[in-house]
């Protein structure tokens, strides 16, 4: 494994930690600033919106410099945002720090995925992308629980100082280990935008929104679901989230391994399994052991879709992949926001605390349908290309009958 992948994974670990650790620290932050929990919740939604908006913005700004330099600038922005959050004297300043940190998120993963893929042989690209995303998945197993514990024991500001220190480590790793990769020849913003005229790029992003949205339709409401339906104590939810994170790590690595061999079949299998598991969660949610197993599987099948979807975007936008890759990261967060809203709607409508699982299952089925459509369109395009190639081949001239020499 190239050491540069380790540097990218460290940066991903820090970003993943700061994105999710705030959920465990909301009560402390709300009490410190004397705001309500729903108001403090803007620190979560504000970050998500910043990711969606920051992905195209920061990528567009970085089209004129090398990818390594852009990664270093993004880590610098991430450090600044977390330091601002740690030092913020007022809630508005804290929210500003969260948004500043989030602006680096989409572009870092989008550009980092391209750099990771370029570090290895073509048949290992999805595995390299998965290795970088391992930092994000491990953050849910180690970084978020540790950050929550530190925040509860020493104060939430210490957690954000620690995350900023992770950013410094990631910055140094990128500077030292990531090789120089000049920007693509002639890579202009107009060329990057042209990738979105490719229907396959748009389909892959739609699959990202729907498929990963299916995961968060359920996981967003895991605390009330597990305490009210399964009977877990609130303190046990942290360990359920650790199990979810373990599933994410395993699924991410498996998805990367098999996507390098058979990308679309891997998507078919992972999305089908995700839809079935989410549907089953409605029935397993009232049993502690079954619920814990199901939560782990949701993490595994959900993140098994990440490397193939990211590689699919890179493959289809090969001429100018930077903006498309970053936008696909924004698509993950857009899916999270939409799915959380839909899950809340079905609960508010009186369908029960486990109803978001059905929302998630339907979203995963919709993503599977788009995957089937994408594959069908690709096969049709391949057949048309072959037919055109056959049509332009010159027709062999018929052999002329031999004329015997000396006879007339």
From TrEMBL:
The keyword Cell membrane applies. It holds the Pfam family MFS_1. This is MFS transporter. Residues 385-408 are annotated as: Disordered. Residues 4-379 form the Major facilitator superfamily (MFS) profile domain. It is found in: Cell membrane. Its main location: membrane. The chain crosses the membrane at residues 41-61, 73-93, 99-121, 128-150, 156-178, 199-224, 236-254, 266-283, 289-309, 330-352, 358-377. Keywords: Cell membrane, Membrane, Transmembrane, Transmembrane helix. Coiled coil: none annotated. It is a multi-pass membrane protein.
């Amino acid at each position: 494994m190239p050491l540069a992948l380790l540097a990218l994974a460290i940066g991903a670990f820090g970003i993943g930690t700061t994105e999710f650790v705030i959920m465990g620290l909301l009560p402390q932050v709300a009490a410190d600033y004397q705001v309500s929990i729903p108001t403090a919740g803007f620190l979560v939604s504000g970050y998500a919106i910043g990711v969606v908006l920051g992905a195209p913005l920061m990528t567009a700004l970085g089209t004129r410099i090398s990818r390594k330099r852009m990664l270093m600038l993004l880590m610098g922005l991430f450090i600044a945002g977390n330091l601002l959050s740690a030092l913020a004297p007022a809630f508005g300043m804290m929210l500003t720090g969260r948004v500043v940190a989030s602006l680096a998120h989409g572009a870092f993963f989008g550009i980092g995925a391209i750099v990771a893929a370029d570090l290895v042989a073509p048949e290992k690209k999805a595995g390299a992308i998965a290795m970088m995303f391992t930092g994000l998945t491990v953050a849910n197993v180690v970084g978020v629980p540790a950050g929550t514990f530190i925040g509860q024991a020493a104060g939430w500001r210490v957690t954000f100082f620690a995350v900023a220190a992770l950013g410094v480590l990631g910055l140094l790793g990128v500077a030292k280990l990531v090789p120089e990769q000049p920007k693509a020849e002639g890579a202009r913003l107009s060329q990057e935008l042209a990738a979105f005229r490719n229907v396959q790029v748009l389909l892959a992003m739609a699959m990202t929104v729907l498929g990963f949205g299916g995961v968060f339709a359920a996981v967003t409401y895991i605390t009330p679901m597990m305490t009210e339906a399964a009977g877990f104590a609130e303190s046990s939810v942290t360990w359920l989230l650790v199990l979810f994170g373990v599933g994410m790590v395993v699924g991410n690595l498996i998805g990367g391994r098999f996507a390098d061999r058979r990308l679309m079949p891997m998507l078919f299998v992972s999305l089908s399994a995700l839809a079935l598991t989410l549907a089953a969660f409605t029935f397993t949610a009232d049993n502690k052991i079954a619920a814990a197993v199901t939560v782990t599987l949701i993490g595994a099948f959900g993140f098994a879709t990440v490397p193939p979807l990211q590689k699919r975007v890179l493959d289809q936008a090969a001429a100018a992949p930077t903006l498309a890759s970053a936008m696909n990261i924004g698509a993950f967060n857009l899916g999270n926001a939409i799915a959380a809203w839909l899950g809340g709607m079905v609960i508010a409508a009186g369908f029960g605390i486990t109803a978001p699982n059905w929302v998630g299952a339907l979203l995963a089925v919709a993503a599977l349908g788009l995957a089937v459509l994408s594959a069908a369109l690709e096969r049709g395009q391949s057949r048309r290309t072959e037919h055109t190639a056959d049509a332009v081949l010159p027709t062999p001239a018929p052999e002329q009958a031999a004329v015997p020499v000396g006879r007339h």
